[in-house]
Design a protein that fits this description.
- By secondary structure, this protein is α/β, with parallel strands linked by helices.
- The chain has a domain at 17-189 and 223-253 and 288-305: 3-Layer(aba) Sandwich (Rossmann fold), CATH 3.40.50.720.
- It is 40% helix and 18% strand.
- It is built from ten helices and 14 strands.
- The strands form four sheets. Strands 3-2-1-4-5-6-11 form a seven-stranded parallel β-sheet, sandwiched between helices.
- The relative contact order is 0.13.
Amino acid sequence: MILNNGLGVDGRATIPHALVTGVDGFLGRALARRLVAEGTKVAGLDREAEAKNLSGVDYVPVDILELGALARVVGRFAEDSGGAGIVFHLAGMAHVGECEQHPARAFQVNVAGTANLLEACRMTKVRRVVFPSTALVYGVPVRVPVEETDATAPVTMYGANKLAGEALLQGYAGAYGFDCTAARLGNVYGQTAAVDSVVSIILRQVRQAGPLKLQSLAPVRDFIFREDAAEGLIRLAARPFSPGWRAVNLSSGLATSIREMALAACRAAGRNAEILETDPTSGGGQGELVLSVSRLYNETGWRTIWSLEEGLRQTLRDMETEDR
């Protein structure tokens, strides 16, 4: 529902025009659906034909590594939005393991692709960019919860790619007056998340008979449901234009161990299951990575809505629907 004064039902500004790269991805689809539901005119960029199935999205097939084609698409978006549209840049390799296995390809897609997107924006005078980054830019934190002013020291190729993308945004903001936001996401979960993510592994086992078998139950992470992640990106974008670069943690801010996650998943599924730890010293790590979300709240007045158990229950329902 959109009110005539240009504000949503909760009083925040709506976004008239948005361009979403990677619109057919895990988070891109959720973001596009929410934008369309709020009356935003959405242009969606992706290489995959499936993106055409997104109702209300003006889908355009394009490869972010092809600067000329990308600039033409962004140029049309600039004309349609009168130069006031917002770009959500989600395209790239988002799987941590794939980035480790193919670092050169990951750099090309995630870093060079981001450079192409920003250059296409510069060429066409589009100056608002929201970039989903990752908590992995912090590496192994020296304290929790981690604040945006804490040191960045990624220990994964995915985290390094995202930090390089943040640096590009910062440079374009300084040199060309862009308004750039890097949203450092916690562990996002939901339907169609990577099959080897810890939440996906847990939920698959919860749906089956027998015990849950997990390598290590000790690591503590900060989980956020996909719908909350999409809403948070919109909240960060729905503000007046302000040249500059900023990083904002986007997650629940709640510390949850893998054991607690497994127990919550069992409750969400309405079943009891034995939880077995198969390799306590596995490479998953025993540390904590939890984000401070004070800046997010101070800037938007918003906190995540979905509790862990509610988000897991909805994900289970979505998985069941997908199986039919």
